[in-house]
Design goal:
The protein has 146 residues and is an all-alpha fold. It contains five helices and no strands. It has helices at 6-10, 15-21, 47-95, 101-121, 125-145.
C-alpha cells in the first residue's frame, strides 16, 4: 500500500511529486568541486575521509603483516622444537629395548614436523599447523606402542 489513490496514478507525473523525489544533492552544486566547506578535492572526494581511509588501511595492512609474520615464526619454531623432541625420543628409544616400531614412529613424526617447520617458514602456516598436528599424533602413536 503506497498511500496513493487511484487518481494519482492515472494523472501521470505530478510536478510536486517530481520535485519531492529529486535527490538533495542534485542541485546546481553537483559540478562544484570545492563544495560548501572547501574540503573536496578534484575528484569530489572528501579529503578528510580519504586521509582517514588511508590511515585505517595502512594500519590494517601493518597489523595483517605482523600477524602473518608472527604466525609464520610460530609455525616454524614449533615445528623445529617438535622435530628436535621427536629425534631425541627416537634416539633414546633406539638404544633401549623397545620394539623397532617405536623409534620409527618418533622419527617419522619428527620428519613430518620438520616438513611443517619448512612450510611454516615459507608462509604456508595453515598446512604447517595441520602437519604439526599429524606429526604429533604419529609420535603419540609411537608412545602408545611402547
Amino acid at each position: 500500500m503506497s498511500g496513493r489513490t487511484d487518481s494519482d496514478i492515472d494523472t501521470g507525473a505530478d510536478p510536486a511529486i517530481a520535485e519531492a523525489e529529486e535527490p538533495a544533492n542534485a542541485s546546481d552544486d553537483a559540478d562544484d568541486t570545492d563544495g560548501a566547506d572547501g574540503a573536496c578535492g578534484a575528484d569530489g572526494a572528501d579529503d578528510a575521509d580519504s586521509a582517514y581511509d588511508v590511515d585505517v588501511d595502512g594500519a590494517d595492512d601493518a597489523d595483517g603483516i605482523s600477524e602473518a609474520r608472527r604466525a609464520r615464526w610460530t609455525a616454524a619454531g614449533t615445528g623445529a622444537l617438535l622435530t628436535l623432541a621427536g629425534l631425541a625420543a627416537a634416539l633414546l628409544r633406539l638404544t633401549g629395548s623397545a620394539a623397532a616400531l617405536v623409534p620409527a614412529a618418533y622419527a617419522l613424526g619428527a620428519a613430518v614436523c620438520a616438513l611443517a617447520a619448512f612450510l611454516g617458514f615459507h608462509g604456508r602456516t595453515r598446512r604447517a599447523l595441520w602437519l604439526l598436528i599429524a606429526g604429533t599424533m604419529i609420535m603419540a602413536f609411537g608412545d602408545q606402542s611402547d
